[in-house]
């Protein structure tokens, strides 16, 4: 989960940091990994499902985190483990190369922040099986792989989408990947 200020002169409110810290995990024993800059805050809990970490900060200061497993089927990653794939992707993303994602066949979502340019990119697998929810407001972009986290942030507007609610009621899910908001 995370938040990015759309304007470098606008700081993220402390209340957002605290809400993300409080809601990132339901287990009080989890130790979240955090990345914080003047323009962005990323937080992640790695439950150890894949046996390897899924976050990386480069010596240049960029940060990337991953949920799931991208399963790259290309020449490049030095190893089959998820952290080797994230390292390969992170180096490519730092140089502006997003073509390795064409070779991803797993279910995953990821975020990459480059503080020098103030650029954040959010990624999801081709079918969106590993959901990445986001909300764009005038001042901030919020994102999370769990909708409950965005619902807890007061700064994220929650305006009911009647059509999506009707679809959820009738079919169990909203068409087109929507949400109740």
Can you characterise this structure?
A hairpin with a 4-residue loop joins strand 6 and strand 7 (119-124). The model has no long low-confidence stretch (mean pLDDT 89). The two termini are 18 Å apart. The longest helix is centred in the middle third of the chain and has 13 residues, at 82-94. The chain is globular and about 45 Å long. It is an alpha+beta fold. It is built from 4 helices and 9 strands; from the N terminus they run βαββββαββββαα. The strands form 2 sheets. The chain has a 5-stranded antiparallel β-sheet with strand order 2-3-1-9-8. A 4-stranded antiparallel β-sheet has the order 4-5-6-7, covered by helices on one side.
Number of helices: 4
The computed structural class is alpha+beta
Count the beta strands.
9
Q: Going across the biggest sheet, name each strand in turn.
A: 2-3-1-9-8
Largest sheet: 5 strands, antiparallel
Query: Roughly how much helix do the residues carry, as a percent range?
Result: 10-25%
Q: Order of helices and strands, N to C?
A: EHEEEEHEEEEHH
- What radius of gyration results from the CA coordinates? 17 Å
| End-to-end C-alpha gap | 18 Å
Unreliable stretches, pLDDT < 50, 5 or more residues?
A: none
As an assembly, this protein is single chain
- Mean of the pLDDT scores? 89
Based on Cα principal axes, name the global outline. globular
Beta-strand content estimate = 25-35%
Topology diagram in text:
Blueprint: E1 2-5, H1 14-23, E2 33-36, E3 40-44, E4 55-57, E5 63-69, H2 82-94, E6 107-114, E7 119-124, E8 133-136, E9 140-144, H3 147-152, H4 162-171
Antiparallel strand pairs: 1-3, 1-9, 2-3, 4-5, 5-6, 6-7, 8-9
């Amino acid at each position: 989960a995370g938040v990015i200020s759309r304007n470098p002169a606008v700081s993220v409110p402390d209340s957002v940091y605290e809400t993300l810290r409080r809601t990132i995990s339901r287990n009080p024993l989890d130790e979240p990994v955090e990345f914080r800059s003047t323009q962005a805050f990323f937080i992640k809990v790695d439950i150890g499902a894949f046996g390897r970490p899924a976050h990386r900060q480069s010596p240049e200061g960029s940060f990337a985190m991953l949920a799931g497993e991208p399963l790259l089927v290309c020449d490049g990653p030095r190893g089959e483990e998820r952290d080797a794939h994230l390292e390969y992707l992170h180096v490519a993303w730092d140089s502006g190369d997003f073509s390795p994602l064409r070779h991803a066949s797993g279910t995953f979502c990821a975020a990459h922040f480059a503080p020098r340019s103030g650029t954040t990119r959010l990624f999801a697998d081709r079918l969106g099986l590993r959901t990445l929810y986001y909300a764009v407001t005038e001042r901030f972009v919020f994102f999370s792989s769990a909708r409950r986290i965005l619902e807890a942030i007061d700064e994220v507007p929650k305006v009911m989408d009647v059509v999506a609610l009707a679809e959820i009621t009738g079919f169990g899910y909203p068409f087109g990947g929507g949400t109740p908001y």
